[in-house]
Amino acid sequence: MRATQSFRCLRCALIPVGIALALGMLFWVADAVYGYLSFSERVRFLLFEQPLTLWDSMFYRIPPHDLYVRIAFLVISVFAAVMVASFVVRRRQAEARLERVNTIIGNSPVIVFEWAGNEDARPTFVTDNVLSLLGYSAGELLDRRVSIQQIIHPADLDEIRAEIRGAIEDVNMVSYALSPHRIFTKDGDIRWVDVRGVTRRNSNGEVIQRDEIVIDVTEQRLLEQRLQEQQKLESLGVLSAGVAHEINNPLTGVINYAELISTLATDSKTKEYSGEIISEGQRIARIVSSLLTYARRDVDDRGFARMSDLVDDVLNLVGSTLRKEQISLVVELPDDLPQMVCSHQEIEQILINLLMNGRDALNQRFSGYDEQKQLKILGQKISKLDSAFVRFTVEDSGIGISPEIATQIFDPFFTTKSRAEGTGLGLAISRSIAQAHGGELTVEYGAERPTRFHLDLPAA
């Protein structure tokens, strides 16, 4: 395309030059013929009718040959002026159209790339709005200060190169679409992009250029992931309801029989053991009750809630897991905290995610029991922007968070865990849920300080 554009520009410049040369040659020949035919007349005019003054030379007594030359010069000058004016007007119109196209592309989410050829080729053109996606200017990419291998995520690079190679080798393929893949921005953030392109081939079928459009689909991927998470929650709710009902019926019988044994027992040991059975049975009943409550809630069903109730429900679900891993829990919730209007299930989802992240951080620092292996859940009422908020704080004394990680910790698909352990969406989804409630999820970190996540929600 660039070669074609260069040829067109050269042709536009050569056409007026060629016309001017043709007119000049025509004038040259005509002047020579006229000079030859009118030589004697010119001599007679100069000898007997020569101009006496400058005024005569300009207007009244103009030699015939000079009159012809002047008229021809005026005609050629006017013609040249028209040609130049036409060229300038067309150029300005083209520049205006180009500026409009650049403005449209610059304000659109679509980024246009042109590549010289194969999968290792360098870009020959990129629109300026690439800065908004990658953080790199068009000049940095065109000057090859940044390679495409540095931008595409290593886990996706081989697959993308193979797809481009396939599009190049298949001579019948004109258009192609690459699999959605991850890229790194200049700041180290991860974005998902969708790429579609066309190949341009020469007469031998060789690819001489690839034109691609790149669209940022990170938000779309995040929404899809949220939908999947909600579907998982709904499935978990159905499963929890079924399991809870199956456990509840025999559990009621176990507790009733234990109470009967306790009533009929005559020795202290039997009473003690039956009391333990009743106590543990009631604990299981509370867990079952929490599962049923969780299963019956709609994700989008918001209502009044107290922090203490939300925390109790969450601890009924994950408390045994934390205790099994020798993590002690400290819960400090003032009695006078105001209520909130929220989706119980979504806020519980945030709290579970924060507690599980804290558990992972503690397990990385402490392999077994330690008195510092502790998770804290704190609550307080705060004021922000002249409005009352309820703040949940989940604090852990784990390995901590570095400043580099803290700047990216809420970014979609960012994770310090392996692919098998996490998707990098837990905190991103949690923050989006908090924002949808008119609240905020933030992190407080520092050297030799506990890591604290603050969930602030508007008070009712």
Q: What's the count of strands?
A: 13
> How much of the sequence is in beta strands?
15-25%
Low-confidence stretches: none
The overall pLDDT, averaged over residues, is 78
What structural class do you assign from the helix and strand content?
alpha+beta
CATH architecture assignment of the largest domain: 2-Layer Sandwich
CATH class of the largest domain: Alpha Beta
Secondary-structure element pattern, one letter each: HHHHEEHHHHEEEEHHEHEEHEEHHEE
Fill in the CATH topology of the largest domain. Heat Shock Protein 90
Structural Rg: 41 Å
What number of domains? 4
Write up this protein.
The chain is built from 14 helices and 13 strands. The protein is elongated, with a radius of gyration of 41 Å. It folds into 4 domains: 2-106, no CATH class; 110-216, PAS domain (Beta-Lactamase); 218-296, Helix Hairpins; 300-460, Heat Shock Protein 90, CATH 3.30.565. The chain has helices spanning 2-37, 39-48, 54-60, 64-106, 130-134, 138-142, 148-151, 154-169, 218-264, 268-296, 307-324, 344-365, 403-406, 426-436; strands spanning 110-115, 123-126, 175-177, 181-184, 190-201, 207-216, 302-305, 328-332, 340-343, 374-384, 387-396, 440-444, 451-458. The longest helix is centred in the middle third of the chain and has 47 residues, at 218-264. Helix content is 56%, strand content 19%. It starts with a helix and ends with a strand. The mean pLDDT is 78. The chain has 460 residues and is of the alpha+beta class. The strands form 3 sheets. Strands 1, 2, 3, 4, 5 and 6 form a 6-stranded antiparallel sheet that branches. The protein has a 5-stranded mixed sheet with strand order 8-10-11-13-12. Strands 7-9 form a two-stranded antiparallel sheet.
